[in-house]
Amino acid sequence: MNALRLQQPSNVPGIPAHSGQLVSRFIDVEEIEEAMRWAASLPAVRLDSVSESDLELIADGAFSPLTGFMTRDDYESVVHTMRLADGTVWSLPITLPIGEQEAASFREGMWITLCNQKGVAVGVMYLVSRFRPDKQVENREVYQTTDCAHPGVAQLWKRGAVYLGGPVWVWRRSEPLFPRYTRDPVATRSLFAQRGWKRIVGFQTRNPVHRAHEYIQKVALESVDGLLLHPLVGQTKEDDIPADVRMHSYEVLLERYYPKNRVVLNVFPAAMRYAGPREAVFHALVRKNYGCTHFIVGRDHAGVGDYYGTYAAQEIFSNFSPEELGITLMFFENAFYCRVCGGMATAKTCPHSDRERLLLSGTKVRTMLRAGQAPPPEFSRPEVVQVLIEGLRVRENQQDVQMVGGCV
């Protein structure tokens, strides 16, 4: 087969996708059976968890304008300039790494079957590039460090040493973890249009929503039509709050404290890179593809540890013009509860010293929750805290049972 007919989304509402048109790499339903028979005769690659989620996000248009895993030219350009080879802004490499021994059997110009982690064929790729990247350079440029204590750096070294690049054709989606809250970019755009929203602000999170998040979301809501609360539920580091626990906490918060007709909760099934400033740009562009006109960038967006400056994730956007980004950015300083002001504030509105401000790190809060200790209600709503403590207790009990069972 030389070509597979793709599904083409028609009448996609909302703002233009990044680079102009929302990509679809899902093949036409009528071709699936024949494509699967053909794929069974091809050499196959089994995707890791990151590549599997990346593949689906390429296919449904969330990663527009990408039509496949990056070729050498696009990869090199993104690593060094935060742009694709054609000049389009794109800040993170989206690659398909495999082991050297496996890669030795592949040649450019081949067709390859792509299998999910269970070994089930989900699509094919036409191999345009097979190359060995310099991971030291990739780490230094993308993560701004080569320290293996950084979770993104550690993850990069665990993945294969050779990258395969080329366009993909996909016929199978993964089973959604949260079906009620799973919508691809066409579906979110359609929902926004049904609600009559013209101005939509996106909020990325991999953490529970605490009072500071709630404050900046509601400040943003004062000037737009709706909020897309878009938690990342793909692969995260081990000490992050599990996705199912977080999702329950979002439900409780939205049910009690947000206007139901002005918020959409929708999962973002991507892996977390922890790339700080570069990931902030990536998150903004992806939310544009989901139909957002605005995007919130707060303190240390997508950061981890002390690798990035407090507001580096906001400063990086000065490298691009508003026209080439195509989404309005909403920058917020660190929000906190001030005991003297008696409410939420930032340094822009609060005149008091740090000793009057309730400031807790994410690490400190996670430690408290796992110990069954509730953070102060001024930091996080008690109902949310209760969900998190109970959810983590259940999760840890399940892990204890699994460990005991594994030793028997």
Short description:
The protein is an alpha/beta fold and 408 residues long.
Rg, nearest Å? 22 Å
- Given as residue ranges, the uncertain stretches (5+ residues, pLDDT < 50) are 400-408
| The CATH fourth-level homologous superfamily of the largest domain | HUPs
Any idea how many domains? 2
CATH architecture of the largest domain: 3-Layer(aba) Sandwich
Helices and strands, in N-to-C order?
Answer: HEHEHEHEEEHHEHEHEHEHEHHEEEEHH
The first-to-last residue Cα distance is 51 Å
Roughly what is the average pLDDT, rounded to an integer?
Answer: 94
Strand pairing plus helix content: what structural class?
A: alpha/beta
Helix content: 25-40%
As a percent range, the share of strand residues is 15-25%
Number of helices: 14
> What overall geometry do the principal axes of the alpha carbons give?
globular
What would the CATH topology of the largest domain be? Rossmann fold
Main sheet makeup: 7 strands, mixed
Identify the CATH class of the largest domain: Alpha Beta
Secondary structure: number of strands: 15
Report on this model:
With 408 residues, the protein is an alpha/beta fold. It folds into 2 domains: 142 residues, Sulfate adenylyltransferase (Roll), CATH 3.10.400.10; 212 residues, HUPs (Rossmann fold, 3-Layer(aba) Sandwich). The strands form 3 sheets. Strands 1, 2, 3, 4, 5, 6 and 7 form a 7-stranded mixed beta sheet that branches. It has a 5-stranded parallel beta sheet with strand order 10-9-8-11-12, with helices on both faces. α9 packs antiparallel against α14. The longest helix has 26 residues. The protein is globular. The N and C termini lie far apart (51 Å).
